[in-house]
Amino acid sequence: MDDEGNLLGRNAHGEIVVRGSLVMNGYYKNPEATDESSAYGWHHTGDIGYIDDDGFVFIVDRKKDMIITGGFNVFPSEIEQVIWSHPNVQDCAVIGVPDEKWGEAVKAVIEVVPGKTISATEIIALCKQKLGSVKTPKSVEVWETLPRSPVGKVLKKELRKIFWEHQERLV
């Protein structure tokens, strides 16, 4: 489904929505969240995906992680897959950061394999070759460790908070 509530055709990216007798009734004591997740009579999963020509559903990314840069929707997971292919990258996270011209700019934050090095130029060149200019990070930072949940998942929300801290508008 697109943001206006229109169901999309095959191979078009949109939010995965479901409905049926086994879908939840709502959030406990939170009618605002229930209304938001039930817009247009469908339960909104928060996942972006598409249905291929054979009817298979593919999940592309989380809607809240999508970066809108210069009017283009950019899915961080696609960029992360390319960055992870570099042998010196242990882990990474791709987020949108404030940009006066484009609204958001693509940024990669990388953990390097211990004992190895990597440059922003290498990562940018790799992404540009594999993905093109729009999806290529405009900036790359190397961090010793990325913020993680107790189970080891990278906390993109915490990363975004750092870069959007003093902005009038938040994502």
SSE blueprint:
Blueprint: E1 14-18, H1 31-37, E2 43-51, E3 57-62, E4 67-69, E5 72-74, H2 76-84, E6 89-99, E7 103-112, H3 120-131, E8 139-142, H4 156-164
Parallel strand pairs: 7-8
Antiparallel strand pairs: 1-2, 2-3, 4-5, 6-7
Care to describe what's here?
22% of the residues lie in helices and 30% in strands. By secondary structure, the protein is an alpha+beta fold. It has 2 domains: 14-62, Luciferase, Domain 3 (Luciferase, domain 3, Roll); 66-164, ANL, C-terminal domain (GMP Synthetase, Chain A, domain 3), CATH 3.30.300.30. The radius of gyration is 18 Å and the shape is globular.
- Unreliably modeled segments: none
Mean pLDDT rating: 94
Gyration radius over CA = 18 Å
- Please, what is the CATH homologous superfamily of the largest domain? ANL, C-terminal domain
Helix share of residues? Answer: 10-25%
Main sheet: strand order: 1-2-3
Tell me, briefly, the overall form.
globular
Describe what is shown at a glance.
The chain is 22% helix and 30% strand.
Q: Which terms summarize this structure?
A:
171 residues, alpha+beta, Luciferase, domain 3, GMP Synthetase, Chain A, domain 3, 3-stranded antiparallel beta sheet, 3-stranded mixed beta sheet, 4 helices, globular
